[in-house]
Design brief:
With 363 residues, this protein is an alpha+beta fold. Helix content is 33%, strand content 30%. Helix 1 crosses helix 10 and helix 7 packs across helix 8.
Length: 363
């Protein structure tokens, strides 16, 4: 088949199997075929620069399996590489850097460095900084001071899925801990002395880079943690638009609403109307859309080209909106849980349509 362009989906190795999100990439390959676009999956360290070829994977529909093949260099790269550790990041960084520096290869978007980078960028915008909770890089001094004044959350600088996120509060002269460890298991503990608490925290963190943040009660009236996931992507005109919006709920025993922690999903209007009533819900949805419109261009202007952002917004009991996270490699599972076929298909399809937009000569 002659192709108008080549899209390489860049992924990282996953223990015991080739890579995650196989169904998603199979969908992109099939859709790409319709638009004369060659789509394949590859690892960053599998490029042969001398031969100008890439050892990647293509789904064989007849045999119903992914097959390794040699492909031409990609014109465009869709970065879906998730780094599970500092070691994994260090292993792939030189290869990814070389691909990014290649003159004839264009990334759909450059991955964000982490939560602190996003927080710093948004802090510089007055209309967005008011939606940020007090946040700092973790230090013993900050921890000692903050824990005596208000409940806090500590979270990994580059983590995801609610893993390694812990809430700590002081109640009746006792420090209480609740959260999820790095095996994504629920944990809880209590200490009477700040020194004992600090020893536990330092052992738990294991010298990883962490953030400390003031805790906000982002729960429903029945004490379920929830947030609003807004998926914002560039469309076939190269413009940012909201692809979908959904409420993610966690268990009442959890502090996050993340789906990997066993959470569920509801339509935004349904959940908010139950919590705030019809009139307030209309106001909140208007605010959510405003944030979704304002956040991506601000981050992109400071960071560099982006293609999609998963924006997570928490809403406290008073109806205040808080930006929890902006992720440049968002998942789409929430739309599957909602059984919203149209939104899910649109969310899955945009990488192809945005690639075609770039192919038409747009920058």
């Amino acid at each position: 088949m002659s192709t108008s362009a080549i899209l390489g989906i860049m992924v990282c190795h996953v223990r015991d199997h080739l890579f995650n999100e196989k169904n998603y990439y199979r969908f992109l390959q099939k859709l790409g075929n319709k638009y004369n676009l060659l789509v394949y999956v590859f690892y960053p360290n599998n490029l042969d620069w001398a031969r100008k070829q890439v050892k990647g994977f293509n789904y064989n529909t007849s045999l119903k399996k992914w097959e390794p093949k040699w492909f031409p260099m990609p014109d465009y790269v869709y970065d879906r590489c998730f780094y599970t550790s500092k070691q994994a990041y260090a292993k792939y960084k030189p290869y990814v850097t070389k691909i990014r520096q290649a003159e004839k290869i264009k990334f759909l978007g450059i991955g964000l460095k982490g939560k602190w980078e996003v927080h710093q960028i948004l802090s510089g915008e007055k209309n967005l900084s008011q939606h940020l909770l007090p946040t700092a890089k973790f230090s013993t001094e900050t921890f000692r001071q903050w824990i005596e004044n208000f409940p806090i959350v500590i979270k990994p600088l580059g983590g995801s899925h609610g893993i390694g996120v812990v809430k700590i509060s002081k109640e009746n002269e006792q420090y209480k801990i609740i959260g999820r460890n790095f095996a994504n298991k629920s944990i809880s503990a209590a200490f009477h002395q700040q020194g004992s608490l600090l020893k536990w925290v330092e052992k738990f963190i294991q010298r990883k880079n962490y953030l400390i943040q003031q805790y906000a009660d982002l729960t429903t009236s029945s004490n379920q943690p929830y947030d609003i996931r807004i998926l914002i992507q560039k469309n076939q005109q190269g413009e940012w638009e909201i692809t979908g919006m959904a409420a993610r709920l966690g268990h009442s025993s959890s502090i996050t609403s993340n789906l990997h922690g066993g959470g569920g999903a509801k339509p935004v209007e349904v959940l908010l109307e139950k919590e705030f009533g019809e009139l307030k819900t209309a106001e909140l949805i208007s605010q959510l859309k405003k944030l979704a419109k304002n956040v991506p261009p601000v981050i992109e202007a400071a960071h560099g080209r982006l293609f999609e952002i998963g924006l997570d917004i928490g809403i406290d009991r008073k109806g205040n909106l808080w930006i929890i996270e902006a992720n440049s490699k968002p998942g789409r599972q929430v739309f599957t849980l909602l059984k919203d076929t149209d939104k899910r298909r649109k969310a899955l399809s945009q990488p192809i349509f945005y690639t075609l937009y770039l192919r038409r000569g747009h920058k």
